[in-house]
Amino acid sequence: MEHTKSVVIVEEIATQSGHTIGVLTLNKPKALNALDLEMASLLLDALQAWANRSDLVCVVLKAAGEKAFCAGGDIVSMYNAMLESNGEIPDFLASFFRTEYTLDYTIHHYTKPIIVWGSGIVMGGGMGLICGASHRVVTETSRLAMPEITIGLYPDVGGSYFLPRLPGKTGLFLGLTGVQMNGADACYVELADVLVASDQQPAMFDALQSFSWKLDDKSESLNGQVTTILNGLNTPENELVTNVKSHRAVIEKWCEPDNVTDVVNNLLSADVSEDKWLSRAQSTLAKGSPITAHLVFEECKRGAELSLADCFRMEAIMSCRCGQHGEFQEGVRALLIEKDLSPKWKYKRVEDVPEEVVASFFDSPWTNETHPLADL
To answer: What is the pLDDT of residues 96-117, one digit of tens each?
Structure first.
């Protein structure tokens, strides 16, 4: 076992049947386990080392502390890199996104079952870690969101792939409004697989260790064996209100137009004063970056037709352009650095953003051969 000062604790646990479980723990609880470059590199190294281990039956990815699984990425380091780059693409951002997206892609295509224990806050980069896992566990404390519109970024980490594949227009709505989902919402939109009580993590580990794992069982794969274990855990005592489900009809109506201006104006002009969840969604959109609104709409449109690898390649382009453009830098300044909560967005309204500005975020700074994710 590595010492607990490491930002990712890497452990191996023996099972009673003579097999091994890999355990990865995000270990920056004071920073809500926000994913930095070192953490992403350590996670990727561990997964690659375990991928072909014949004795390893599954991997568990969890986090230290009760508050958050992972509240996003290391935005402050990105901000500092943008400050120093003078309008060029910061090398740090290119390196960070290459590593993070390779990690996310690896999780999607991993050779073993991966259980992600997504309790507490799961946002931004945390969504990238949970979305590709074979077994996505949420609890009554889970709060999931892609709130990048508040900082002038956009839902990356595979958002261009998973958002347009959610039921109906729910993905577009979640991306535009950054609204929070609870565990029941996440299961409803198929971003999570199982909802369990938050005190069940020790019981899960007990069950994983005492289970009679069978590697050559033709009737039940390793994925099926993990599913059996998770289905035996206790569910939360109180039923959660599924906000996305109960608001599905209006979400579909508002998000029906095939242009972003009409969708945004539908959302902003709706009278939602009596509804706390929709009011929050509307407020976040109203304060968010008009450029981001375009990027969300465009990534959902383009990503719906692309493979996962091509989505990550497109996002690497978009994210590096965000690092160059200034909107992302201004959003981070207002929310996290100076904390005046008054970002000076480049355009007042969604309809003011020129088409060529939106197009510039999809213009690759690399050839296909030199793209940092060319070999995904």
So the answer is: 999 999 999 999 999 999 999 9
